[in-house]
Amino acid sequence: MNKKYIKWFGGTLMGTALMAGLGACSDEHFNINPDVAGRSSLWENIKSNEELSEFADILRRVHYSKSEGSVTPQTYAELLDNDQTFTIWAPKNGTFGYQRYDNLLKDGTVESAYTVEKELIRNSLARYSYVLSGADSTDIELFNSKTAMFNCAKGTIKNCNIVQSNIGANNGILHIVDQAISYQPNLYEYIATIPELDSLNAFIKKYEIIDFDEDASTQGPTVDGEITWVDSVTFVNNEFLNTIRAYINREDSCYAMIMPTNEAWKQAIEKSKNYYKFRDSYTQTVVTENADGTESTTSVTTSFTPEELDSVTEWYTKRAVSQNLVFNANYQYGKSYKDFAVPGACDSLTSTIQSTSLTNTAFYAPECTNLFDGAEPTTLSNGYAYVVNNFNFKPSLSWAFDKEISALGTSNIETYAKCSLVPYTWEYHVVGMGENGEAIDTTASYNIVKTVQQSSSSLPEVTFKIPNTLSCKYDIYVLMAYNTEADKPTKFRAQLSYHTESKPTVTTTTLSVPEGGHGSGTSFENVAPHFDENGNLQIMDSVLLAKDFEFPVAYMGLDDAYVTLKIVCYVSSRETSKYTREMWIDKIIFKAKDE
C-alpha cells in the first residue's frame, strides 16, 4: 500500500521524523547524558510546573491521532508519560493563546481537536532528544513535519526564547519557551485560510479524498472471510494535485504557487469557458480498419445528460486555469523564488505538469514575470504563495495548445483513398555561405509520407483525425514537401469536417486560399524551397489553409468525436505537365489563438 503521504505513524512513531532525527542526533550535544537525564517523565515534569498549567491542561484533553481523522484513546499526557523519547518546547502560561485552544476543544468536533493537535502540540514536539549546548544550530523536524531552527548559540527555537532549558526526563528533554513556536501553514493549508481565495480553494478541495493506509493500520480478526481493522489509519490525498504533480500538501519540497483571488478567478473562468463549449451530443461517422485490411464505417453518438454536460464543462474550464499555477522552486534553472516576480530576472519557468500526459508547459520572459502580477511572496512551510488580483496567463500558453498531427502516425489518419501511403525520408541539399566566405554543403532531412497513386489517373486523398480541439480560433497549416523527384509542385483542396452548435452531425467546409497564400479559390499549391522576405531559406513549405478558423464546439476528452481534415489532390489531366499528383505530406498543424 502507498505510505509516502503519511506524515504521522502509530506505535513507535517511525517514519520520516525518524529518518530526519537520526542525522541530527548524530551530534554529541543532542544526546541525553547523565547530567541532564531525570527520573521523572516529561509529563510529570510539565504537570508539576505551575508556569505550564495551561499547556498541561491542553495535553490532558487532546488525544493523539495516527493520522487526520484517526484518533486514538491515548491522550498526549499519556503519550509523554511512557518510554518513547521526545523533546518538547513548552510555552509558559499566558504566552500561547490558551483561550482560543480551550474554545476549540469545547467545540467538541474532531476537526477542532485536530487543529489544536496540529498547530500547538505537534508544533511544540519533536522525536528524540535535543539538548541546548554549545554554539551549533540545526533544523529540527517537528512532530507535525514542519521545520524549526534550533539555535543553541542564541538559545532559541524558531526565534522563540528558551527561558529554561535541558530539564531532564527519563524519556526526553523539556525546554520552557516564552511563546509557542509559531505554526506555519503549508500552501495547501494556506489556501483554505484566506477568504479571497475561496474559489480556488473550493475547486482544489473538491478533489480531496481520504485514503486508507493498510500497512499503517492494525489488522483485527477475519470475520466471514473479510479482514476487520482494530485501528484504521487514513491520510489526505488530492487527485487533482496528483494529476499536475503539485504536492503542495507535503512538507518535503519547495514550491512557488500563484493564487488568484476570487476576482482574478472570475476573470480566468470568463476567459477559459469560451474554449470549452461542449454539445450535449455528437454524432460522427467513424472509420475503422478490419483485420483483413478492409474498412468499416459506423455512426457513433457521444451524448451527455445535462448534469454530465455541466460537470465536464466545469472540470475542463477550471482545470485550464489551475493546472499551471504551481512551480517547483527547486528546479527553475537556478532562480531564487524572489526572482520570479521581478521584471528582467526571470528567463523561464516550468510548471509542475512538465512531462505529464497533460502537456509540457514552460513560460518565457516576459510572460513568466507577468504571471505573478507584481505580488510579493508569502513564506510558508513548503514554499511561497503569490496572491494575485489579475489572471495573466495567455490561453495559447496555458491550455489552448498547438496541435501537430504527423502523417507518419497511422492512428492519426482516419482513411485514405486512391493511393497507398509510403513512408519516405526526403533529403534536400543546401549550399550556403559560411562566415568566412567558404561554401557550406549540408543536407536537410525529413521523414514524410508519399501518397503514391493507385493508377496514373488517380487523385489521392488523405483524411486526418484532429482530436481534442477546443472551441476557439486556429491558424491551420499543412507542411508539404516539394516533389523533387518530379520537380513539380502539387495542387490540392482541403476540407474541414466539424460539429456546430445547431446540429449533432458534422458540417463540412471546403477551405479557400487565404490572402497571401499560394493558389487561388479553393485550390492550394505548394512551392519549391525558396528564400523568404527575411532572406531565410524555407525548405518545407508551410501551406496556410485557414487563418483564424473558429470551431464552434470543443472535443477535449472525447474518444469518438473529433475534427477531420481531408487533403485531396486536385490536378486535372490537362495540368499534369505542371503539377504532380503525388503529395509529400509531413504533418498538419493547428496553431491556437488567444482570442
Question: What descriptors fit this protein?
Answer:
595 residues, alpha+beta, FAS1 domain, Jelly Rolls, seven-stranded antiparallel β-sheet, 34 strands, 18% helix, elongated, disordered N terminus
List the SSEs and their pairings.
Blueprint: H1 16-25, H2 42-47, H3 53-61, E1 63-67, E2 70-75, H4 76-79, E3 86-91, H5 98-107, H6 110-121, E4 125-127, E5 137-141, E6 147-151, E7 156-157, E8 160-169, E9 172-177, H7 187-193, H8 198-205, E10 208-223, E11 226-238, H9 239-243, E12 255-260, H10 262-272, E13 281-289, E14 295-303, H11 306-322, E15 326-328, E16 348-350, E17 362-364, H12 367-370, E18 378-380, E19 383-388, H13 395-398, E20 403-406, E21 413-417, E22 419-433, E23 439-453, E24 461-466, E25 473-481, E26 491-499, E27 506-510, E28 519-520, E29 523-525, E30 530-531, E31 537-538, E32 541-550, E33 563-569, E34 584-592
Parallel strand pairs: 3-9, 12-19
Antiparallel strand pairs: 1-2, 3-4, 5-6, 6-7, 7-8, 8-9, 10-11, 12-15, 13-14, 16-17, 18-19, 20-34, 21-24, 22-23, 23-34, 24-33, 25-32, 25-34, 26-27, 26-29, 26-33, 28-29, 30-31
Helix pairs in contact: 3-5, 5-6, 10-11
Textual characterization of the structure:
- This protein has 595 residues and is α+β, with helices and mostly antiparallel strands.
- The N terminus is likely disordered.
- The radius of gyration is 33 Å and the shape is elongated.
- The chain is built from 13 helices and 34 strands.
- The longest helix has 17 residues.
- Helix 3 packs parallel to helix 5 and helix 5 runs antiparallel to helix 6.
- 18% of the residues lie in helices and 37% in strands.
- The protein has a seven-stranded mixed sheet with strand order 4-3-9-8-7-6-5. Strands 21, 24, 26, 27, 28, 29 and 33 form a seven-stranded antiparallel sheet that branches.
